[in-house]
Amino acid sequence: MDIYSAIKNESIRAGILRSWNNLHNAVEQNLERFPFLRDFAKDVKEAKLEIAKNYEYWIDKAAKALEDAGATVYFAENAEKARKIAGEIVGSGKIVVKAKSMVSEEIHLREYLQQLGNEVWETDLGELIIQLANDKPMHIVIPALHYSEQQVAEILKKIGIEGRNAEEMAKGVRVFMREKFKNADVGISGCNAFSVENARVFLIENEGNIRLSTSLPKTYIALISIDKILPDDILALKSVIVQAAFFGTFPPGYINVNRPVAGQEMHAIFIDNGRSSTEFVEQLSCVRCGRCQLECPIFQLSGNIWGGSVYGGPMGMGWSAITGEMTENAFLSCLCSKCKHVCPMYIDIPEIIRKIRIKIGKG
Q1: CA–CA dist 219, 121 (Å, integer)
Q2: What pLDDT, in 10s, does the model give residues 329-356?
Q3: For domain 3-34+278-362, which architecture applies?
Q4: What backbone torsions phi and psi does residue 120 show, to the nearest 5 degrees?
Q5: Looking at domain 54-271, does it have CATH number 3.40.50.10420?
Q6: Other residues' Cβ atoms within 10 Å of the Cβ of residue 111
Q7: How many CB atoms lie under 10 A from the CB of residue 176?
């Protein structure tokens, strides 16, 4: 789907506005009730940008902490290397359960593992719908917001799930996924924040699927983009709290804190993919709450189609550029600066978009 088709797609706009109606006031209420959230955001931004000055040092420190705790650690300079490392760990003929991870989308991991002959399942309900529909996530946190209940019912029939309403369909998905969790050989997750202090992977969720994906399989792979590295547990906890609160859910449904445990192989892949060399350094402080997307007037018309092949919306302009994809969709931004004002990190996204336009113009 191109940007012009997306604008004409009524279900995209309806889904985004429905989500905006549900979450906009929730964020405002969170900030009014808990003013310390802005202080948390400031602390996290300062820490992230300080670490970005010397990623090499912090990656080495993080790797040592994980190895001391019993994990096997890898470093991937780019998406291809990250896929290859994960593929060598998984092998072929395995059942793989995946937690929702935009970094895995960034490196196209699910498709790669399927090509190797593995059965790979997204375990987040929204991501499962996207997988079955052969679509792309329409929002960084709510991937299937553009599908109606009726459309989801048709999509889930592909795996034999039928239901008269959302509750029945969700129950059918739980039963289906339960068997995948029980028989899974490998579990894969992303990372919302990583604490160097105690080698801990922090993950937030609201369905319980991440906990099952990362704890039941004998082999667990954590995909850790280097922008998620933080010095200690307190800052990592602040980061996931800010992410949840500025999305609209506070306190978070679940906060998982993972590290190597007896009886399970843990593999941690630190992924650079343009982060250590980007000129758009401020974007690296992003916690990916997705608030800028829902609040953006252009995104409200076109969804995640406005952006690169993976990352869309205001924050998607910067992340696409960092990961090697300068998109001319940057010229469709109205530069109204709403994204900057709703961002917990006050990232100057309009200025990033201006710089992208200049670079594209210069060829």
Answers
A1: 15
A2: 999 999 999 999 999 999 999 999 999 9
A3: Orthogonal Bundle (1.10)
A4: -120, 130
A5: yes
A6: 12
A7: 15
